[in-house]
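Fold this complex.
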Amino acid sequence: MVEKYITDFSIAQICRSGQCFRMRERSDGSYEVLADNRYLTLEQEGERCVFSCDEQEFETFWKGYFDLEADYRFYKEKLNPRDIYLTTAAACGGGIRILRQDLWEMIVSFLISQQNHIARIRRCIRNICENYGERRVGKDGTVYYAFPAPEALAQLDEDALKACNLGYRSKYVVRAARSVVSGEVCLEKVRMLSYKKAREELLKLFGVGEKVADCVCLFALHHLEAFPVDTHIRQVLEVHYKRGFPHRRYKGFQGVMQQYIFYYELLKEK
DNA sequence: CGCCAGGGGAGCT
DNA sequence: AGCTCCCCTGGC
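Structure:
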């Protein structure tokens, strides 16, 4: 167990922000996080966070995963105070961090996300992990399943994942897995590329369009200049930014602003 | 039962 | 760039 005091961090907000589908709030108010074949529980009260790992694992993995080395005050200071909408959104989701998630997992997750609800996306991913991922046992005895490697999914029939509730998205995932396994799209290479080049490379995958590529760039590759535009964001742009979103002002970290907006819109739904 | 929308994308023109 | 299909589920 390690105890940390962290500002601009809210596990509850991150969990609800829709960038991560394998994180959940447990009935006792603590959070469970599955990432990189690891299992973590996290309790938070104000700025006090208790991670269920040792200091070394925190330093070498979770600190980077939650992007805790970055100072998000920098992004908030750049906010245009006259932009009431964005200022309000950032105030509501000020504890959000852009996670550094696994590349392959994000590709699959956002392939599944198209024309889909968050609750169902979570179910789909859980189904895939339980059916094709390796079974693991956490330090506290909890059984969980790792996210299946491309090799495990590449050998499936194109329609096999319909059994995991993917519907017509099944063939997107299987074909993408095959492209990765064959080396047509090299993930190690994608990791080294700039935002533009990485995006271009991801677009070669069947089923990956501009929105999905941007989500992968933002949530896996940490290219904060990626600004995924989905139906929700499009509506916001139409209502609040008729003359265009001020990309110039937020150059290099538009993705952080996108998350504030997205979270705020999700929040208002309820 | 029908209708429609839910964090799109492919394949056309 | 804009259009038409694609065609899975869950909610109403």
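Residues 155 and 236 of chain A are 41 Å apart (CA to CA).
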